[in-house]
Amino acid sequence: MRNASRSAAAAARSHVHIDASGSRGGVAVYTLTDPRDVQSARYVGQTRDPHARFAQHVQTARLWLPDEIPWWVRSPKHRPLYAWIRELHRDGGRLPFMWVEEWVGPDNDPLVVERAAIMRWLARGAALLNVEALKLGAQLPLL
């Protein structure tokens, strides 16, 4: 387990890209993508510490366990994200790539910015694994 924590922290240094508008500080709105296609988000989230959050995602996926179904994730609605991370890892030891899209300052609500990002990605046709994507996806306006 200790090796896994160190590995996740080391991966965070190379798999987290922070080149977003706004000042660094506050809350980062980020995407997780397949490293082979960083233009297509699979998850949108928010965090104050992108490197620590990336490491947390990797650790929660428990890549050292042989089971394919992440039964240890308490909430079934979060299991698809961790199953996807495990699938990436099984395919050549890949890990997701985290791209910080923007920093949310104290004058804005990070949840509102995160949901707006989810809506943008859904409008582009992204197959998001967010729980919110199921709820918000039904609200996409028809063109």
Task: Tell me about this structure.
This protein is α+β, with helices and mostly antiparallel strands and 143 residues long. It has one domain. The protein is built from 5 helices and 4 strands, in the order αβββααβαα. It has helices spanning 2-15, 50-60, 79-90, 110-123, 131-137, and strands spanning 16-21, 27-34, 37-47, 97-104. Strand 2 (27-34) and strand 3 form a beta hairpin. Helix 1 crosses helix 2 and helix 4 packs across helix 5 (131-137). The longest helix has 14 residues, at 2-15.
Low-confidence stretches: none
Beta-strand residue percentage = 15-25%
Indicate how many domains the architecture comprises: 1
Helix content bin: 40-55%
Biggest sheet layout = 4 strands, mixed
